[in-house]
Amino acid sequence: MDRSSKWLDVFIYTALFLFSLSTVLPFIYITIVSFTEPHEFISTPVMLFPKTWSLASYRYIMSNNSFMNSFFITALLTIVGTVGALLVTSGLAYGLSRKRLKGRNFILTSILFTMLFNPGIMPNYLLIRNLGLLNSFWALVLPGLATAFYVLLMKSFFQDVPAELEESGKMDGCSDVGIFFRIILPISLPVIAAFSLFYGVAYWNTYFNGVLYINKDTLRPLQVVLQQMLAASAAPPDEASGIVIPAETVKMAAVVLAAVPIVMVYPFLQKYFVKGLTLGSVKG
Amino acid sequence: MTLWLRGWGTALRRDKYLYLLMMPGLLFFLIFKYGPMWGLSLAFQNYSPFLGFWKSEWVGFKYFSDFLTNPDFFKLLRNTLAISFLNILFFFPAPIILALMLNEVRRVRFKKFVQTAIYLPHFVSWVVIAGICFILLSKSSGIVNGLIVDAGGTKIDFLTNANTFWLLLTSQSIWKDAGYGTIIFLAALTSINPEQYEAAQIDGASRWNQLIHITLPGIKSTIVVLLILRLGTVMDVGFEQVYLMSSAPVESIGDVFDTYAYRVGVQQGRFSFAVAAGMFKSIVGFIMVVAANRIAKKMGEEGVY
């Protein structure tokens, strides 16, 4: 290797390392500070490592009913939504992957059209209103049950499943539903894992639908409550102890709790989602 | 007609279970994607929620001309286009550059670390991202300004400075999604035949020459398709991002079509006007995407449909 090549490597490794640090350090910093003794943060806001560790901010958050309530609402939303979305999306995608299906092209075109033309916020809002879903859990679940792009990606995956598998199922007397659940889905587990992550993340991060459709304290999703906490300038005094908890560390603890499930799950699914995303999308 | 019906009859009987599997998905698209299209008719009505759809008066294009002659219109158009073009200029090339650099990395563990790290912010919500930005960049207690002061500098107003608000949005987009965007380019890079590199090395081509003559041409079509599609979506700037980062000092610079439609429609209850404003954006967006796809095809690329 010649000298300029070596310098090029030094540059590339340094640049990539710095960019990686920039994406990871803010999360690490906020996590560390959220465990700081709250008063220490007031006196020395610029610090990288606390002298006194403390769970005070977390205790404060956990005793906050609206935060905990929204946390459970969102957990439920994520589970119900992800399972539902996988069933809806994979069923539709499997049907569309069978070339013999009558009406296939019409349905594909109709789905594609929804990717190109979005009527906008108001018509969506009015639909949910007219369906009588405002202020209901289902207003958060139903609009996210399928994403056109994911239907098309999954369809191209099912298309590549060898036809012999379907035929052998038919010989054993399976119906299409049986083939789908007993043969196709089990061999597609890596792809299902990828799409669970995509849908799960989308449901966990539900924010705007919560702002738009929910106007009831008990149903507000986590991200909406988090946003309200972040926007509040200072936390009210803690009545039990009379201590004023500084807002910043409480905010950080809330951010950590809202991000933790994703940060924990995503590295395990990484190899699958890369596969899921590049399905049939590489051209040239 | 009877033949057509009979054709469908056989197909439905033969594939009844397939159609059954697809039913929830078909209903979903019918209700939640095509259902709202009906709401677009409100743009042509003087809609009153009390009178309802059937009794409200039809007014033709009144709300469109109201919107297009409204002084807000140019502000919205300018803001939307400015944010979009800054994104195309800086955010679009970022994943390509990152992917090209990653492609040069030979240490597998380092590469894995970088990839895991840079994909991460994509999966976190805009609320969390905005929250992190407010905490880190705040003028009074943010650590970034704290470090600047410690280093002898003066505090910088990152968050509410109207002059740099657009750049703040672009930097944020790069930070959140540039890493994730590398996936598609890395996939394109793996499809380049390694023999080309071997041949070039034998001919004594430097790494720079290999980049210019093999790597870039190898991913050119992916870049072109994505760029054209990006140009097709100039009317769409991330709604949640803009909405969350906006504050009173930057409102005149941060208001875009979607945030405007939300404010006027849902918050002020001016339904018809808001539908017209949103619809203007959707129609222009639709024309842009279709045109962009056609250009991609004219250039001999596959396009998206």
Automatic annotation (TrEMBL), chain A:
Cell compartments where the protein resides: Cell membrane
Domain ABC transmembrane type-1: 71-268
Topological category with respect to the lipid bilayer: Multi-pass membrane protein
Membrane-spanning residues: 12-35, 71-94, 106-125, 137-158, 179-204, 252-269
Keyword Transmembrane set for record: yes
InterPro entries for the chain: MetI-like, MetI-like_sf
Keyword Transmembrane helix applies: yes
Classification via SUPFAM superfamilies: MetI-like (SSF161098)
Any one GO cellular component localisation term in the record: plasma membrane
Key words of the record: Cell membrane, Membrane, Transmembrane, Transmembrane helix, Transport
GO BP annotations, alphabetical order: transmembrane transport
CDD domains for this protein: TM_PBP2 (cd06261)
Similarity section: Belongs to the binding-protein-dependent transport system permease family.
Protein name, per record: Carbohydrate ABC transporter permease
Organism: Paenibacillus roseopurpureus
Organism ancestry: Bacteria, Bacillati, Bacillota, Bacilli, Bacillales
TrEMBL record, chain B:
Pfam families noted in UniProt: BPD_transp_1
Membrane topology value: Multi-pass membrane protein
Gene Ontology CC entries for this record: plasma membrane
Entry-linked InterPro entries: MetI-like, MetI-like_sf
Keywords for the protein's UniProt record, in alphabetical order: Membrane, Transmembrane, Transmembrane helix, Transport
Compartments, as annotated in UniProt: Cell membrane; Membrane
Transmembrane segments: 17-35, 81-105, 117-137, 271-292
Keyword Transport: yes
Domain of life: Bacteria
Limits of the ABC transmembrane type-1 domain: 77-292
SUPFAM superfamilies: MetI-like
GO BP of this protein: transmembrane transport
Family recorded in the similarity comment: Belongs to the binding-protein-dependent transport system permease family.
Protein name: ABC transporter permease subunit
